[in-house]
Each structure stands twice: as C-alpha cells, then as structure tokens.
Task: structure prediction
Amino acid sequence: MSAARRKRRRPDDNAPQGAPEGTPGPSSTTGSPPKAGPAPRPRRAPQHRRAADGRPSVAQILQWTTAGTALFTVVALAAAIAPDQLGTVAVAVSMVLFVVGCAAFLTGFSRAVSRSRVDEMDLPGLFFLSGSVEPAVRRRLFILLAMQVAIGIAAASTRPFTAVAFCTLTPIFALGMMALCGATHGHFAARRS
Result:
C-alpha cells in the first residue's frame, strides 16, 4: 500500500468486511481491538446538491447567506448616504431578510425537534454550530453574521431617526441560516436508549 493511500485511510477502513459502518476493526499496529471510549461523531460527505427531500445543501445555505449579506451591504451603505431616496429600499430589504431569517430559524427548530428523537442535540451545536459542522462552514457563517451586525449598526447609527434604522433587524437572517444549517447538516451523537 502506498504512503499516500495510508494517509487517506479512515478509522473505519480497518473494520471487518460485513461489519456495520462505524464498527472499528483491530488496531493496525497491535492487532488488538481499539480502546473503548466515546464514539466519534460520524462524518458525512459534503452535500453540494439539494437532497431528495428538498432540504438545502450546506453550499446552498452558504450561497444564500452570502448573497443576502452582499445585497444588504450595498443597500444599507447606499441608504446611509441617501436616506431620503433609498430609505424605503433599505426597509424593504431589511424586512425581507428578517422574515426569511425567521422562517429559516423556525424551519431549523422544527427539524431539530424531529432529529432530537434519534440524535443528542445540543444548543451550541445547533444554533452556533459548535463542533457540529466543518470549521470552515462555521467560520464563514460567523463572518457573515458579524458583517450583518456591524453594517446594520453602522448604518442605523449614522441615520438613527430614519428608515435606515430598520437595518438592525437584518442579522436575524444570518442567525436563522445558521440554525437551518445546524439542524439540517449538523453532526450529533446518536441518542442512547
């Protein structure tokens, strides 16, 4: 076996053939069974297409959140410069992103309730993606959330008594998408019965 192949081996590669997935085989160095301990969280291949049941993939959630943040950034900055002309546009964009974020949050919450029957769901992993998704996905969603918060507060503080103040509602969009991502694609340990 080549050195490159040995590096890519997963722990399950040593499992006996016919054994259920996730069943570790004997250790490759000692030939003895592995030590007992907490089972590692299962890792799934990243999904780039919509699932058969219509659930969005991680890539789609990232695309939607990025597009919403970009749209919000352009509209909020323009409205902060010209609130009389673009204030209503800022209100419309902020309200649409707020409503979509609320819907995503409620969808994620209902999926989490369904998953909690078979998986050990925890709040940090579900809503803040702590240890439940790939670090790159978590980092990107947190950056987008921070951008929405900073831009919303900056725009609203420059024009506090105008329609631009509605920009502070937009970060609910990123929070809702994080909840949807955690509930749909988060990795949680199986519930012990």
